[in-house]
Amino acid sequence: MTDARTTRTVGILAFDAMEVLDFAGPYEVFNVAGELTTGPRFDVRTIGVAPGVIEGRGGFAVRPHETIATAATPDVLVVPGGAGARDLVRDPAVVGWVRTAADEAEIVLSVCTGALVLAAAGLLDDRPATTHHTAFETLGRLAPSTRVVTGARYVQGSERAWTSAGVSAGVDLALRIVRLLAGTDLHDRVVAEMEWGWTGTDDRGATA
Fold first, then answer.
1. CA 20 to chain centre
2. Which of 83, 138, 159, 184 has the most crowded CB, counting CB atoms within 10 A?
3. Rounded to 5 degrees, what are φ and ψ at 49?
4. Does 199 map to a domain?
């Protein structure tokens, strides 16, 4: 799927009680990838579910670049997880925005319980998906037609929709998307820059 476009925007959803590494891990991967290349670049943007400062787990504060009311659809949409993701499932404005953005985005990926938000938006119907190990049953109840995959680091549910397991697995999935969109060389350079221990050079555990 690599191509010669100059820039891809990466929009990372931000909300209260999100898991810190779910948000910051993919942010770091795509930001480093953007810094390390003069070819296809990544421009990372934070999209808040509401105006103002977002407070993640442990008081981690984020001031989003824009909100779901003002943001253009990103090329790559990242939906983190955390305790706050369970509240988003019941927020029709957020679920509707994710559904609409997913229709236009090139890639949509969730980290951890961010998969619950994708499920609420109908993006995982009749597809395989994974999430944090404590939320397998919740995902199954929320999306009965979804095949919940256990023991996988990340899962490709469709050409555009990907889900990852909990927390640190979001880094692995973000690296996989860098490799998909910009090639192995940039992927390997990002891994080296981040000194990431799991290179993700094979796809065991990923389900097409």
1. 13
2. 138
3. -75, -15
4. no
pLDDT at 204 over 50: no
The residue whose two tokens read 């100059």 is: 6
Within 10 A of 38 (CB to CB), how many other CB atoms are there?
6
> What does the block give as tokens for 39?
């070819």
The DSSP 8-state label assigned to residue 150 in this structure reads P
Q: How many domains does the chain have?
A: 1
CATH number of domain containing 188: 3.40.50.880
Q: Which one-letter amino acid corresponds to residue 30?
A: F
Which structure tokens are listed for 36? 């390390």
Tell how strand 7-14 and strand 76-79 pair up. Answer: parallel
**Which residues touch 95 (CB under 8 Å, ≥6 apart)?**
88, 89, 117, 120, 121
Where does the chain have alpha helices with state H?
A: 20-35, 83-88, 92-104, 114-120, 136-142, 169-182, 184-194
Q: Write out the two tokens for 76.
A: 């790559």
Give how far Cα 79 sits from Cα of 4, 6, 33, 55, 89, Å: 26, 24, 19, 16, 12
Task: Enumerate the β-bridge partners of residue 129.
Answer: 148
pLDDT tier at 37 (50, 70, 90 boundaries)? Answer: confident
Query: What domain range includes position 66?
Result: 7-194
Q: How far apart are CA 173 and CA 109, in angstroms?
A: 8
Q: Can you give the pTM of this predicted structure?
A: 0.92
